[in-house]
Write a structure and sequence with these properties.
The N terminus is likely disordered. It contains ten helices and eight strands. Helix 4 packs parallel to helix 7. The strands form two sheets. The chain has a six-stranded mixed beta sheet, sandwiched between helices. Strands 6-7 form a two-stranded antiparallel sheet. It has a single domain, classed as Vaccinia Virus protein VP39 (Rossmann fold), CATH 3.40.50.150. It is α/β, with parallel strands linked by helices and about 250 residues long.
């Protein structure tokens, strides 16, 4: 089966992103710690403003008009610009952050180099490790997910090698009640994937032919109705957190 080309436009999709994608406090603390003592922070691919720190001077960049329009009034307005051509001088910010966005960038390496250029000290990237996305049980219902994510998400080594400096990679545990609705957030709540609005806020579904999505959802529903899912994966419902593919990469110049 042919996978749709991994190019995604939030303006085209017109998703009400804030309905299912919110700042998860436990993840926000990890990001805030990674930013260290930075006073000025650039958020690239800022979307609707999730994970932007409230105690620092934030500058946000977001190319999508639809996403910019969904930013809460308490967040700074986002500048319409792209990661691979940032309109800032060298070393303009103490730190920069890019949270679950680099897989949408047309030129990931160029975007990372731009982050490095405009940042004095610390670059923080949250992404998924493509080598481990297949460990999530959803891959058994939608194996195409693995193909899509392997095509979209850069290898962690590419990120660290491009940013240079002193880098560390932090695995991110996902709490059972995670309110940021990326796919692994529902590891213990499989019924969520039956909801159209949940799937539309997870961009990988829109890289698939619709028949592949419908097949995956039908299989999952059948297994939930029959109890088969709980026999195979029910232990996930009792896990307080899930260690999947989510990573924070921190690079210090």
């Amino acid at each position: 089966m042919k996978i749709i080309s991994p190019a995604y436009s939030y303006d085209k999709q017109k998703v009400k992103y804030t309905a299912n994608r919110q700042t998860e406090p436990t993840i926000a603390r990890l990001i805030n710690n990674a930013l260290g003592n930075a006073k000025t922070v650039l958020n690239v691919g800022a979307g609707t403003g999730s994970y932007e720190p409230t105690d620092r001077n934030v500058t946000a960049v977001e190319p999508s008009e639809v996403m910019r329009a969904q930013r809460p009034t308490e967040n700074v307005p986002a500048i319409a610009a792209y990661a691979d051509n940032l309109p800032f001088e060298d070393n303009s910010f103490d730190a920069s952050m890019a949270i679950l966005t680099i897989h949408h960038w047309p030129d990931i390496k160029k975007g990372l180099l731009e982050l490095k250029r405009v940042t004095k000290n610390t670059v923080v990237i949250m992404t998924f490790d493509p080598e481990t996305v297949g460990r999530f049980w959803l891959a058994d219902y939608c194996p195409e997910m693995v193909k899509v994510d392997n095509a979209r998400f850069p290898e962690i080594d590419l990120i660290t090698n491009t940013l240079g400096g002193k880098s560390k990679v932090v695995p991110v545990p996902i709490p059972k009640d995670c309110i940021d609705g990326f796919n692994e957030a529902f590891y213990a709540r499989p019924e969520a994937f039956l909801e159209e609005s949940v799937r539309r806020s997870q961009s990988f579904w829109d890289f698939l032919p619709r028949e592949a999505e419908d097949k995956a959802v039908s299989l999952l529903k059948a297994d939930l109705d029959s109890g088969k899912w709980d026999k195979l994966y029910g232990s996930h419902r009792d896990q307080s957190e899930f260690h999947g593919a989510l990573r924070i990469v921190v690079s210090q110049k």
